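Revision sheet: structure tokens.
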Amino acid sequence: MRDKADIGMIGLAVMGENLSLNMEDKGFTVAVYNRTVPGVEEGVVERFVNGRGRGKNFIGSVAMKDFVQSLSRPRKIMMMVKAGKPVDDVIEQILPLLEKGDIVIDGGNSQFTDTIRRTKYLESKGILFIGTGVSGGEEGALNGPSIMPGGSPAAWPEVKPIFQAIAAKVDDGTPCCDWVGENGAGHFVKMVHNGIEYGDMQLICEAYQMMKELLGMSDDEMSEVFRKWDAGDLNCYLIEITGNILAFKDTDGQPLVETILDTAGQKGTGKWASVVSLDLGIPLTLIGEAVYARCLSAMKDERVEASQVLRGPAAQFKRKKQEFLNDLEKALYASKIVSYTQGFVLFHEAAKEFKWNLNYGGIALLWRGGCIIRSAFLGKIKEAFDADPHLSNLLLAPFFKRRIERSQKAWRRVISAAALNGVWAPAFSTALSYYDGFRNARLPANLLQAQRDYFGAHQYERNDRPRGEFFHTNWTGHGGDTASSSYTV
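Predicted:
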């Protein structure tokens, strides 16, 4: 074992522990430390070093000072602690022990605005900071996650050999890790990744609901469908595990999934993405619906009460099962295209707002392996941006345009069937609504602007005059000609 560690890890919960093991397995000596809560988390470091870490290149410390001193310069310290105040608390604890040029890494799901603030603060102290998105869960952390680092550019050459060594690899050996951009760019990309994850999961759940309610399929039958889809265009980790989940039996031999209460939790990243999209004026509708779907699911008691008094249409679904399943597969693919389209449009706007130079094809590559949304589909996104680095919307890329055209009739049949039979499908529906809105050269916002001008003198532009000229009309003859100032939030 070396006298000094190559990198330090603060936080030995599931992600920190498995990332540490991954680093050590790739030939690095790792210093480990865990914040101790008396009577709750005592002995964590000792248990790890003498348990899963026994006989390996770990340096365990129970005092922060010893931990910092065990690291080679420039010190590289990765935190895997709960987002928010705990991150700031750890930073303040280690800051007096660091020297100029040392590197602090936040690998948790921090809000990107916090990362912007922390980068500026630590750089003012001579310390480099990296906000790093890590995706892949427990298995990914141990065997190869997707890693999305951003922050102080000078820190990247120091951590690159470690991060790219432990990251997942695509078929040609390219690591699913590269520098994303300055300050909060890494955590922003992870936030959008998680938002897309929300959307993918919601779409899959709605497909399951339609199979169950419209087709009356058993869990075993649905499992086979998802496994078939995973072998085709919809190949991805979430489709794969859905097939496995539906086949899994409880101790009584019945499908375990059907005993799980239908109330979903969330940790905030999907909500953050939705809020940022509103701030930037980008319609992130599918991810927003996925967030609201979880909120609605949490209203379990109210829904049970409502189910006793509110009625929908009687089921009259008579289509052939395989016919509908073929349509459903195409509708799911088309809806996925919209979800990723919205996410990448948000990247475009954020890059302008925060002055980031984002590599959109590179981001798709980061997600090709290791992460929760890994899929063959992402390769097509990379190809689209390789062909046109300035592509403004994925729906305009030839491949995705063709796939939407091939799927459109099936997509509409599926959503119509859900609506006519009272099956809840908000993500499928909003995906099609976005597509119809985006492809429409004329939307009814002209009437909306007239309404705003009528009651608030908010002004409007005319389609027979140059853009940027604003007008106000005295609609009633009593309001006068004074207009409100024109601005867009």
